[in-house]
Structure formats: C-alpha cells, structure tokens
Amino acid sequence: MPRTALLVSAALLTALLSPTVSQAADDPAPAPVDRFEGEVPFASQPADGIFTWGSDNDDPPQLQFADRADAPEGVKVLSGTYDISGYGGFTHDFAATEPAHDWSAHKGIRFWWDGQNNAKKIALELKDGGAHGEASELWTTSFTDDFSGWRQIEIPFTDFVYRTDYQPVGGIDHVLGLTQTWGYAVTLPVGAPGQFAMDDVELYGKADQSLRANVTTDAAVYPVKEGGTASVKVTVATTGSAPIDDPVTVAYETAATGTAQPGKDYTPVTGTLTFPAGTASGATRTVKVPTLKDRSAENAETIPLKLTVTGAKAPAEQPEVVVNAHGLPYLDSKLPVKKRVADLLSRMSLEEKAGQMTQAERGAMSTPSDIASYDLGSLLSGGGSTPTPNTAAAWAKMIDGFQLRTQATRFQIPLIYGVDAVHGHNNLAGATVMPHNIGIGATRDPQLAQKTGSVTASEVRATGVPWDFAPCLCVTRDERWGRSYESFGEDPALVKSMETVIQGLQGAANGKDLKDDDKVLATAKHFVGDGGTEYGSSTTGTYTIDQGVTKVTRQQLEAVHLAPYQTAVDRGIGTVMPSYSSLDILGDGQGPVKMHARADMINGVLKGRMGFDGFVISDWNAIDQLPGDYAAHVSTSVNAGVDMMMVPYSYKDFTTTLIAQVKAGAVTEKRIDDAVSRILAQKFKLGLFEKPYADTSNASKIGSTSHRAVARQAAAESQVLLKNANNVLPLKKNQKVYVAGSNADDLGNQTGGWTITWQGASGTNTTGTTILQGMKNAGGDVTYSKDASAATSGYDVGVVVVGETPYAEGIGDVGNGNDLALTPADQAAVDKVCAAMKCAVLIVSGRPQLIGDRLGDIDALVASWLPGTEGDGVADVLYGKRSFTGQLPVTWPKSEAQLPINVGDTAYDPQFPYGWGLTTKTKVPGGGTTTLKALAVAAALADRHGADEAGRALVDKARLIVQQKIGQNITAATAKPFADADHLSLTGKYGAAVEKLVTAYRAA
C-alpha cells in the first residue's frame, strides 16, 4: 500500500508582520540560523545543508544564492523559482552527525521575505526532537504574501502547531521542546509559477516562563475499577531542565460534565497544588480521585479533572478518570464469541459502529483524543511510520498509549493495531528480516515458510501489534510489476503450498491461538488479481503496471488468481485486503471495475462461496480511486463488502460520511452490523478485551539468535543455482576469493523495499550481516573491491554480487525509472572479474535480471533474490555448509520483450524455466532414460496412494537427471515440459510430472 503524503499546512496562522522590530533591553542578542552567504551549502542528510523536495520531478523549486544589492543582510539572498502542481519546497536540515540546536532561550524565529503580493500562503515548519532532521516532529504555521518588497516576518514559537496531515515519523512526544531542533522547512504555493527570495533567518527575543515551563500529567486517561481510586500525577517541567523562576500553581476540581454522577459514582475533589519558585524541573504532585461502588452492571463512565494553571503552560488536554465498564455480558470471556459480539453490538450507537469501521494512521491524528472522540476501531503504522526511538519498547509504549485512549469510551472497545510486517517485523530496527516472499517461494519448503511466519508473529506481537497485513497471495505474472517480490511465485500451486505461513502467523485455523503472545491476525492480500495487471494499464501517477487492470477470462481468474484465497479461507485467515487494481472479466459486460467496488467478488465469491467469516480491510486510501464523489466512494465500498476502511488522513470525513449515508438509506444498518460483528469477533479472538496492552514477554527474542537462525536457513534455501560450470561452487576456504559488486556489502540492498521505510534504502538501516561479512564469517579468504578497481591477479575465483536497489510497489515498476538490466557499474564489475578468473555471479534482486548476454562468460550464476538480514545464510551455500536446493519461483526471461512469460504458456522459450535449480546436495542419479522410466512408474504409484513426500522425492530425482542433460542448452522444446513438470508436481500429479521430464530429456 502506498505511503505517500501531501505536504499541506495544517493551520493558516498569520504572523506578526513588521518592517522594524524593537528589542527589549533584557532580550538575548538575535542568534543567526541562515545568512545565505554560502555558509550553508546545498546538501542533504546527514550533512548540514539546504535541499529541495516535491511530489514529482517537476515540483522541487530551483534555488540559488543570488547577489542582491538590496539584500537585507550581507550581499546574497536565497532566491528561487517554482511551478508546483502537487507539493514542493525546501528544507535546511542541521547536520545529523552533530548535536541538535537548542532554541529554547528565544521567543521565536524571524526572517526577511521579498513579497510578491500574490495573497498566497507560505507554510513554515520547525523540525523538533527525534533522531535527526528527517526523523523529527514537524510543527507548522504560515504567513500570507500580501505585500511587496522586503519585509521581516516575525513568528513567535507559540504560533506553531503540531502537523496533523503528515509526519515523517510523528508522535515523538507532541511537545515543541525546542531543546533539540533540527532545522526548518518552507512549503511554497501551488497552482501557478512563482518566484521568491529570503534572507537572514534568525532567532529573536527571550522566552518567558509560560513558554519555557509546562505542566503535564502522566496520562490523559485514568481507568479504574469501580470503587478504586485514581492517582493523577501532575508534573512541572522546563525546557533545558532548569528550576522554575516563578511559582506555578495548579488548581484542580472534578467536573460534573462527564457521564459519571458525583456522589453516586465518585467523591468530588477540589484543591490547589503549588510549585514554589526554585522548584526543580520534573517535580511531581498527586491528585487522588476516589470512585464509589454499587451493585449494577454499567458502561464505562467518565470523570473529567479540570486543571487551571498559573505561571506555566497548561497541559494540552485535561485528564479524565474513567470508571471501567463492568458486569456486562460482552465482558465475560467465558461466553462464546458470537454471544459476546451480539451483546456488544446491541448496545452500540450508529456513531460507535462507524468508528469501529474506521482505521487511521497513527501519525495523522489531529490529537490522540480523537481515538475516543471518533470511537476509532483501528490504527496502523504505514511503511516507515515508527516511534522515535525505533525500538521494541518504544513501539509497545506508543501502542499502549493509544489503547489507553479507548478506555475513555462507553464500551472500552480496544483498538486493533496493524502493520505491514511482510518479511519479518520490517518496520522495527533490529528485528529479524526474512527473505521477501519471492525467496520463500524459491525454497519450496512449506515447513520453513511456517517457521518464518512464527518468528514474524512473535516479534510483531511483542511490540504490542496484534495484526499483520501479510501474507501477499498475489500470483505474479509479469516481473515488470514493482511488487512482484511480494509474491511467492507465478504459479498458483506454488503460492498455495506456501500458505503454511498463515499458520505460522495465526496458529490453528479455528483462531484458538490468536490470543497467545506469539500470534497475530494475518491478512490475505490483495484480493483479487493484483499480480495479473496488464503492463501500461495503470492510471496511478507514473506507475506502469501496479494498480492497473487485470484482464482475464472467468476460467483464468478461478484457476490463477482466486485459487490461493480458498486455501487461505480454509486455513482460517482472519482478514482480507482488496487490491487497488481493477478486474476486467472478459465477457461479463462490466469492463474494468476497481476491486474495492466489486460486490460480486467480495460479497459473492469471498464471503459467500468461499465462506470467509473474517473482515475485509481496505487498502491505503483505496476508496479515493472509486468513481463519483466521496459519499459514493464510501457507500460503494461498504456495500461491496469492505468492512473496515483504511483512511489514514481522512478518518473524520469517513466516519461523518458513513453515518450520513446510513441515515440517507444508501447503506443499510444490517450491512453496518455485519461489518462491525466481523471486526469485533476478531478482537475477541485476539483476547484484546482481556489484555489490550502489549505483552512484551517475548521482546527479548526480537532479533535473537534463534530467530535469526530461521532467517538464515530461509536465506540459504532461497538461493537458486542457475549455472555451475566446472563446479565453481561451492567455494573452498583455502581459495583466494575476489569479491566485487554493488550488493556484496549493502544490507539495505539485500533486504529490499519494505525495510524500516516503505521504499527501503541502500546502506545500513538495521541490524544484520551482509553477504561479504557472511563470507568472512564463514572463514573465507576474501578481498573486496566494490567496483572491481583493485588488481585482479593472484585469485582463485571471483564472486560478483550485483542486482537492484530497493523499491516498493508502483515506484518499482519497470518503465517508471526502472528496467531489468544490470547497472553499467555492475556490468563492468562482472566483465572485469569474469575476464580475469573463474567467477560466480550472485544477483540480489526482487525479480529476474537480464543476464543472457554475459552468461557465456560467467561460470556460476545464482539468483539470490532479496535474502534479508542474514547474509550468513548466503555464505552457507557459497561455502558448502548448506547445499543449494532452491528452485525458480518465476520464469527467468531472455529479454524484456518476452514479458509476460509464465509456466503453462503456449510459447515458452526462457533463459531459465520455472522450477530450474541445480543442487550441490547429492549426486545426480545415473541410468538416463532407464532410470527416468523407473521413476515414472514409482511416481504414478505414489499418485495412487497419495504418498506426497515420496512423490516429490521421485520428481526431484528425475529433475536432476534432466537438468544435467540439458546443461546450458535450454531450448523451448526442453523448457516447456520442464516447467510444466514442476507445476504438476506441486499439484500432486507426480507420475505426470515425471512423464513431462522424460519429454524434456528426450528433447535435450
């Protein structure tokens, strides 16, 4: 799902505009930030520098340091031109390698602006807290360009508000502390060409105590059992941690504006807390609020505590004591889930039901109190949306804080929090990152797939997250697709065989294990046909294939794309996510219809024919792609069978619109009840009503040796040996090995997209072992030269590790700035090393790369896919600790013109066929045709007796015989029956599979 965000100002606040500014006698001298004389260069993280950004290639402004005779300060100014259609602007990030700047002693920020009198709003934001400038909170305000010529814009820090429409990480502490400032950014106007000039950014004035000192409470919500006493801790703190200069008083009183009744449900309290001058920052006082007990079953009831602060900044929101709901049937864990759901549903209002159907992005909420205000049912972290610091403890604390907010609602229905843990808990730094699904498909090992799911579930649940948007059950049919690596392969039979991962994630198919501390709710995505979109059919931005149109016959739809979903339903999958793509079933007369609108597929096939009883969650903002106005988007998708809507930034609009659509009769209350019942059932199964907060007992296992051992095994088994002339592999430890290539020592390239951030990134962004380090750890005698510029003489063998850099989804589509060719640098490294010595080339990529023109010069070729954080696993097969056993999960093409090319095609002439994979595990059986005939007889017998394990072993023996005879002389006559044999084996037709292999053998 895309993780993009429009950079639009959250508040339109007009700053104080004055050509001359007076300075109080005790004000500190202005502190320069940017003089724009060239002292700060055009550069980006981690260096100190100014850089531009925008929504597409045309939107970043053009900047320069220009000489201006009328410059307010010095001789140069920062000037620029722009023509922005989406969003664009520039940023000054302070150096990430240096300490952040402390701005807390000053009143505000000011700068000179060359007015164009265009009445446009200019947004200014500050970067506060966090790890560095690109991982900090954003605080925003704006001014209006309604004047001509230079004017000094002066903005006190009190005018800045927390950005709610977009945060790069968000939720650090929601406090503009100013003690760790990482820079500022300017968002320029859209819609028309323009120019600007800016000069002399500086800090001015003296911060008064009401800005520097603030009063906080240790929580916003204080749930207590009926009859218990809530303890509200009130703290005074200062930026810079200095003692307070003047007294701070906090008057408190319980307000009768809540749903609890004074005297009946609680004893009212009132009083004043005093923090004298000189009190240390961090000093705390406690207010106690006693509740009263009666004998009746009740909903949760609220008791607001009003705090009136003098001498400091008051809390952002007033605290609230909550008497927990009690005695109601839905709270009884001994009752069947259906009865609990029915009881709770019968008590809920339409507004509360609409909230349960709504999912917001955690960093996009205006305020965490929106969880209770809108009765939100779910939150998610989009790709790269993490707490700071990005640790397991911080995740758990963040999510617990969100869960606490649900306790202020009538029925205290817990949130279900979701993440895209698509190859391990990939958003969490230090987690175990598995190979992407394409590599898992290459292992042909269902038991291992289940183990990877188990490790992922354990690490995800230990951070307080009970829901994983995985696995992707797409059947990739065109490797130009930017998310083809999220697929287990091109054959639905292979995808189905790997769905053991669902049991790894969820446990038993009946859901009885979901409440355990090492299991999560899984999601089958993207229903249906996302892997079959036609190249050039996408209408999303510059995407070429992702989110496009899948054109199929009804038979193709059933056989290829729908088949894995019946398996998922049979395995008890808890949620299903529809695809962004459109489905065009040839001959049905509908034409292309977006999947989020296809009631025939969601209600009819998935929920009806297949019997899916979980809930359907939309993809990220996917309903916005439906035709019509927003009301039509909401009613169409809900009526089509989507139960919960992922509306990251528009959660308020969605709930309001859904309620209105029900009242208008466009959506029935029966449909709402069905959706909410499905959602509540999964929450009950997960045990969230009994244990809403994070169970961190497994946190010590995150990234543990035992978990990494599973990832290491998966990395090893995913390696596909495509060629091995003269048995170059495995390497021997006494050989001198020359290692080169862009992906030999790059953990980010090795883990790919969806790693720490949505698109992933090159470099070291988490904890793991590169392939190079793995080779060293294996005891190899290796010398490394990334670009092969070092001398190549004196080596026994070369290993060149090349391939792709990270991408995800449509941004990775071929034709959208990507192709399937190696980079010139990688090509040069391969050419140089393979010309100088025997060589093995490893391709680290999410899809096949075009290597045919160099294949004759390469002795050994390995498809390494995206092996994850455990490069030791790749080294294990390179040095023979483990054998090469992987098989191609997709067809390896000779050229891009061949695409799409898949097993079963009438015309089939690839570089390497589907299912190809040499082994170093065992000797190839002798006997040729005679042995193959005997294997065919035995395989047919295995068919009749349902002996799957024996049948697969027989097919494997036959495959090795055929591969040995074919060698590198792969032709259409050998490739087609070879690939067909692998498909037949996966469908349990072992005798027929061997017969196909006999055909390939005879054609070789």
TrEMBL record:
Its EC number is 3.2.1.21. It catalyses: Hydrolysis of terminal, non-reducing beta-D-glucosyl residues with release of beta-D-glucose. GO terms for molecular function: beta-glucosidase activity. Residues 202-308 form the Calx-beta domain. Keywords: Calcium, Glycosidase, Hydrolase, Repeat, Signal. Pfam families: Calx-beta, CBM_11, Glyco_hydro_3, Glyco_hydro_3_C. Residues 1-24 form the signal peptide. It comes from the Bacteria. The keyword Calcium applies. Belongs to the glycosyl hydrolase 3 family. This is beta-glucosidase. It comes from Streptomyces pseudovenezuelae. The lineage of its organism: Bacteria, Bacillati, Actinomycetota, Actinomycetes, Kitasatosporales.
